[in-house]
Each structure stands twice: as C-alpha cells, then as structure tokens.
Design a protein that fits this description.
There is one protein chain. By secondary structure, this protein is of the alpha+beta class. It has a three-stranded mixed β-sheet with strand order 4-3-7, covered by helices on one side. It is elongated and about 85 Å long.
C-alpha cells in the first residue's frame, strides 16, 4: 500500500513538473514574437523534406539574413569544402562582420538556400560560375572579381594538396 502511494506521488509530481515546463515554454515563445514577425510571410518551411526556401524581397530582415555572397569550393566529390567571402562581390564587407550565411545541403547534396552561394567544384571555375560572377559584379568589376576568386581558389587548392586532402 505504501509503495503504491509512493509511485502515485512520484508519477503525479513528474506529470505536474512536465506540464509546468511545457506551459512555460509555450507562453514564453509566444511573448518573443513581435509584430514584424507576422509581416514577414515570404519565408516558408517544408518540414517533410527538411528544406527551407526563402524568397528574396525588400524586407530589411531578409536582406540582413542574406547580405553577402559566398564562394564555396567543394572537392573530393563533396567530401570536403572551404568557403570565403570575395570582397569584390561584397563592397562594404569587413572581415570582422558576421555575414549571416549558413551553407546547408539536403540529403542528395544539393544546396539549400543557395541563391547567394557560388559553388565551385574541384577548384575549377565553370562558365556558369563566371556568368554568375559577371551578373553579380557587373561588367566593370568582372575582371577584378574573377581574378580575386581565381587567386583564392588557387590558394585553397595548394593548401588542400599540401595537406593531402586533394590530388590533381
């Protein structure tokens, strides 16, 4: 009889504590939302595929989230990668800035939210990459931007070769 009472007391206490924690988190999360959060309807999540698609609009929050262009160099069939922020494509960028970029891939290795990412495979800048760089930098700055990216890619390639991570 005493054991049954003890089990009921422990179960009831655990249940009330769990409900209390859940209620606190539920109400606390509702308080953190601001009116500007409800206006930002251009972000949609598809939980079934674990992919996110964010459309670009003129809303300040979206611009801050995806402010800078990033170059990601993928090598060894996607087994390794390195990324950097080219200064010619990102005027005003400072190395101490947080560039608000998260490079994520789905289960098939495809970029998620890759609209600000230039992907270079095995240290080879493709014609599509060059066209993308030209569209971003403009005709006037294209040569300088391409040169900067080529130099950085070559440096990354030499480092990967020295460390034994890549073979030509």
């Amino acid at each position: 009889m005493k054991i049954q009472k003890a089990i009921v007391v422990i179960f009831s206490t655990t249940l009330f504590i769990s409900l209390g924690v859940y209620s606190y988190n539920f109400w606390d999360n509702k308080k953190e939302k601001t009116p500007s959060d409800s206006n930002n309807t251009n972000i949609s999540m598809n939980e079934n595929s674990d992919q996110a698609h964010t459309s670009i609009d003129k809303d300040q929050n979206t611009v801050e989230k995806k402010k800078y262009y990033v170059v990601e160099v993928v090598y060894n069939t996607g087994g390794s990668s390195s990324s950097f922020v080219p200064l010619k494509l990102n005027p005003g960028y400072k190395y101490d800035s947080d560039f608000h970029m998260n490079i994520s891939r789905d289960d098939n290795g495809n970029l998620i939210n890759g609209d600000k990412i230039i992907e270079i495979n095995n240290f080879v800048i493709s014609d599509k990459n060059k066209e993308n760089i030209k569209n971003i930098a403009g005709s006037k700055n294209y040569e300088e931007a391409l040169k900067e990216i080529e130099d950085k890619v070559e440096t990354l390639k030499n480092d990967a070769i020295k460390k034994g991570h890549f073979k030509e």
